[in-house]
């Protein structure tokens, strides 16, 4: 039985009262961490200092210290470092949990019914906002239309983001309020889906064109933002994620993170990458921020979008899409613009993270890093986010200039059928090429791109070493030569993730001196079958020596509430 | 001789290391503070705890504690609470110190020469930026012109703010870049000065019209902002100011304040009032911020401008200006807009501070407070900033609803001749009416409106109880019945200033439990003659138990630097 640890450290206004802290021994565990050489280290006990850092890592033979204030009996449970998601959207995840989520709809009809129900259940909401639809998942070979959305809700504006965030679906009322019509031109870097044979907007807007409607949606109130942040943190901690790289932090997002830190409710560590260089300058000022709230928050650098997404055919390819001749996707920046933005960031030592999905985009950012590395020398850790479709001839370049490849295993399993439709077999050789990119010498880190996918890191781990989805498909794995080992996958979700964010030595490893960020699960992550791993239950999640999530407590609370009704 | 106190508390990342702190006894001083009844309390020693708060206040007969780590011999010097400036512009003060300052020019010709010299000395600056000009001080009965500015600098754009911040002077190149010409209409709430008999812009832009040119000026880099903040703090601490109300904080300003707090170099306490409700929402979110960095920073509420300034005839009057028939000034908001903004703030418990200079503006905000007080009950401390020209019939209303009148004594002494030109004698009865407004029951607090005036609080104190300027004019005081007592003046610059910012109990009084914010000066503030008081030398300035300014050390540093050359 796990003796409960009293909730300790009251974090008031960023200053931590030493008097209330205590040394804690978490014993009788089967612990795993990755050492600096990428090898597994095992241990059976952790001593957490009164400052929330690991004081000692104990193996079976080590004497247990006596000056302990609290003891937790791990009951033989498995302990891994807190999982680090190196690419997600914190506020997007939170808002998705608070708004209409269509990601589990399997047909257009099902989505229409869900939307209509949601609208009926929320009569006071002026706009119906939601996300997560995916026409590929619906078996639709085209985008849905405004008319189809009107069939669900016609009396109020409706605006629904596609699952990848790169397209939006509006009803007629929303388009009317946005003032878009046949005369509206496609904006640079975007496309308005139009009724065949006409210029009439059909309902869906791709990439930069989404702004035409999105700009009319009422912005969330600050209280809503804070609620979304609380939601996001609950979801992440429940899934065993203790640190994230937030890809596209706005000043509004940052203010919520700071309120959380000031108020003592920032639990998950957030490595923030600002939404463009203006936000980077506003948030960080003359340089990246210091680590704040005891390494819970830092503005590391900037997130730059070079192209769109594969599903919406916005990813920038060297050759046209296999299923859309003549269309090579949408570069969102010229080569000069890209280099200017990267330079602006690097000039003040902000870290650069560039979204590049198509092979043309990846080639472009690799070339830009090559060119800028003379001027901006030193330990830059240029990040390429997604690196999803790479020309096999370009893979070797990932090993240069200390590049970090930030990839999302569950994208491969979710997208494989779509990818096979978009690309011919030669190009699939460089698709989701985790192994090759890592072997080329890049630092490989993993994430989920939540809320585009669920932030469940165990699904990511299982996909990473099997190249099979939750249904076990395809049986031999999809391009199984690109699978990585379990150890590398775990490393990419822990210590390498910390390194990618300049956080090595602070968290990511269960070693003396680092923060006590760990997850207690109910099975061996290195021996469980893929299915068993996908079904792993997170029992406890600790960050900085504080237990922020306990499945047992969550269950008890739910039971108490049920009884109270 | 004053034994030096070692610099103690290392404020790292907002968290304060207890091990380095120490108890300090500041003894052998002639201390003064104002108690809760507005009366003088004297003391001869202060014990500062290791947390930076006052542990004990000692009078002559009290035993001195023994458990003291450091002792300062005050040598009979006078000690007052740190002065609180209840209305200034922190970043404006800082930038003014870094850019061209024309506030001490006495003629147009002198200003032109100064501008030309500055431009020649700064060949790399694309725009010549400055502030502080005052055509009244130049003896000019009109605004200066673009042509006169071209005579100083014609090859680069020049943009110079009038001393009160309510007008700007552009040269032809600046107007060209701004695209303003004869076809440009006066924007709402603003006025373009035009060449007589034509529509051609003459060079000066008043109130909202300043945006036409100001919007083209390159924004400061974040590093420049931080430098301006450092400068502002140095100036304030040197003058004995330990806390301020920042009137019009932007998100960029707030970010600099936070960087200072995070980095341990926020020395002066800043009670921030956001620049409008959008900034208020962005900075504070769903509510005023908590007190941050040990009561050094808080987003209290919002600053709203209802009218302009008297000098530029933007102040909103009930009857026309005596020297400009037909012109009653410029209300910047309709009554509905004002009430909407005030409601928006009060809804989320943000404090409201409304700039009202003219008697019509004051009447309007008094009426708005009256109407909103039913809906927004409780301890609101509605602030009226300046309250400069008040219809005597309206003065009694200042005593209702807990209104705070935030006024600037040095405005009266600087502006009296201009005020006499703008207004007839009946209206002068209610001008800078500190005594009447306080007697009506308002909480009276004082400030400087720096950089419009110098933030020197001793000039403010001297003006407050004499109604005479630095030259002793007019001899009997200007409308001397409106002078306040020395005690009230000191209170308005200390404890009442804290109350006005919801900081009572934290700072503003030298009593047990409050922060050790105090100033050591070389003369008795309650007995010195006005001239002696104006010449008071600040010897040391302490905030939160840290000595941030020492005249002796400053002198030694300057001598060392001089010897090094």
What's the helix and strand layout?
Two copies of one chain form a homodimer.
Chain A: E1 11-12, E2 15-16, E3 24-27, E4 30-34, E5 40-43, E6 45-48, E7 54-58, E8 70-73, E9 78-81, E10 83-88, H1 90-98, E11 100-101, H2 108-121, E12 128-133, H3 146-150, E13 158-162, E14 167-170, H4 172-178, E15 190-194, E16 201-207, H5 211-214, H6 222-238, E17 241-249, H7 251-263, E18 269-275, H8 277-284, E19 297-305, H9 335-347, E20 351-356, H10 359-375, E21 383-386, E22 404-407, H11 409-422, H12 425-428, H13 434-439, E23 443-446, H14 457-466, H15 486-492, H16 495-500, E24 518-521, H17 530-534, E25 538-543, E26 546-550, H18 551-564
Parallel strand pairs in A: 3-8, 4-9, 10-17, 11-12, 12-13, 17-18, 18-19, 19-20, 20-21, 21-22, 22-23
Antiparallel strand pairs in A: 1-2, 3-6, 4-5, 6-7, 9-24, 13-14, 14-16, 15-16, 24-25, 25-26
Helix pairs in contact in A: 1-6, 6-7, 9-10, 11-14
